[in-house]
């Protein structure tokens, strides 16, 4: 009986050692998987950053092209406006330099735009309230 109990006890110890060995291997595999997951996440992050940088460069290039196009159009428009002003001055008998017409444009992101409804025809005048964020239109 004692020999049998010792055998069973030894078997239990062997099973415990084997279980510990498996658990140790599982932990090692889990660490390897975590490392691999971290590498994959880092690679994905770097790819997203590259895509973002490419998109940003594309947007900058488009803005530059638009600016060049606008500059060309602005020059044409200013020339046209100067001619119109000179003609008006001559018609009215006014003399002197033509008045300065601002030609700078600011691009407003669509997220900052609010479309107001209510008018059924053109809006001829509008003004911001000095007391708050109210807009009067007519």
Describe the structure.
There is one protein chain. This protein is mainly alpha-helical. It has a domain at 1-74. It is 66% helix and 4% strand. The protein has one helix at residues 2-92, and strands at 126-128, 135-137. A two-stranded antiparallel sheet has the order 1-2. A hairpin with a 6-residue loop joins strand 1 (126-128) and strand 2 (135-137). The protein is elongated and about 120 Å long. 0% of the residues are buried.
Placed side by side, the strands forming the largest sheet appear as 1-2
Largest sheet, described in full?
Answer: 2 strands, antiparallel
Shape: elongated
Q: Provide the succession of SSEs.
A: HEE
Mean pLDDT: 79
* Spans where pLDDT lies below 50 across 5 or more residues: 87-93
Secondary-structure content class: mainly alpha
Query: Could you tell me how far the N terminus lies from the C terminus, measured between alpha carbons in angstroms?
Result: 107 Å
Number of helices: 1
Radius of gyration, rounded? 38 Å
Based on DSSP secondary structure assignment, what is the total number of beta strands? Answer: 2
Share of residues in strands: under 5%
Q: What proportion of the residues is helical, as a percent range?
A: 55-70%
Subcellular location: Nucleus
Region (Disordered): 1-81
Protein name: WD40 repeat-containing protein HOS15-like
GO molecular function, one term: transcription corepressor activity
Furnish the topology, listing elements before pairings:
Layout: H1 2-92, E1 126-128, E2 135-137
Antiparallel strand pairs: 1-2
GO molecular function, one term: transcription corepressor activity
Region (Disordered): 1-81
GO cellular component, one term: histone deacetylase complex
